[in-house]
Amino acid sequence: MRPEEHENKENDFTDFLAAATAATVILMGVFVIVTIVQLVM
């Protein structure tokens, strides 16, 4: 990462939002899979 990019706080915040969104989507996916497995069992 270049120093100019590292100084850009908005860019860091956007990366954080993207990571948080991805984590939320993954957690929701896991939750849905677990729920379906529970219903099938």
Automatic annotation (TrEMBL):
Segments passing through the bilayer: 16-40
Keyword Transmembrane helix: yes
Protein keywords: Membrane, Transmembrane, Transmembrane helix
Name of the featured protein: YqzM-like protein
UniProt organism field: Seinonella peptonophila
